[in-house]
Amino acid sequence: MSFNLTEPSVLRILAPVHKHLDFELILNEEHGPYNHKTLVKARQEDQHSTIFAQLDEGSYHIKVAFMSDAAVLQLPCQTIELEFSVMTVQRALAKAALMKEHHVAGAQRDLSLSELLVQSGKGPLTLYRPSALGWRHIEAGLPPYVNTDELYVEVVRESFEVAEDDDAGLVIEIVSDFLLSGVNLAINNVVTGQVIEDERRDSSGKLIVGHLVPGPYELIVYSHECVTNMDPAHGQAMHSFDLLL
Questions:
Q1: Which residues make Cβ contacts (< 8 Å) with residue 179, sequence separation at least 6?
Q2: What is the pTM of this model?
Q3: Can you say whether residue 106 is alpha, beta or left, with left for phi > 0 and alpha for psi between -120 and 50 degrees?
Q4: Are 7 and 58 in contact (CB under 8 A)?
Q5: pLDDT tens profile 48-62
């Protein structure tokens, strides 16, 4: 998927966890016909594949690269969902300032699972963490390429346990700006290692588990740092991103 940027912009691309195909997202910078340089790779593992970047004006393309030809041949008809958002840096700065102005009052810097369980029945809880997501400057085509697992930022990790005699399920909804915060939610079964991800649409993610097998779990809320090919000396790029959820 090719696209052109006429001015510096912020973009985010997300692919939900796919149960049958192993693939990665690759963001390339184009330098003429049949000539491109890789900026960043997002390998699918237990979590959503995400690319979060600030890009200078220019031509780019997103590539979906399958890790196994055999898997593609066995399952030739597969659908991969992608969410894509892009905004100029100037508009992103204005939107970030607006979010900060209207949503900081009463927000907490940290949230615990006990607070969520006790307070969420009265209404949603708000977490605001200024400058939570940093950025990393990269040069197109210069290995080693940055993989998004290096950019992982953990926001919340809370442990809980489901007892043998519990018949418990779980419903959690989380709202954050898809482009600027990009927060995702997951439940990790500590014993089996199984990770259950939220289903995200636009700026809302929802995780529903009808029945939790007894045992220890972790609730994980995470996002990613930003990569950029913009020259830091120019002073145009956003140097950090506030996190609001």
A1: 10, 11, 12, 85, 86, 87, 92
A2: 0.84
A3: left
A4: no
A5: 788 999 999 999 999
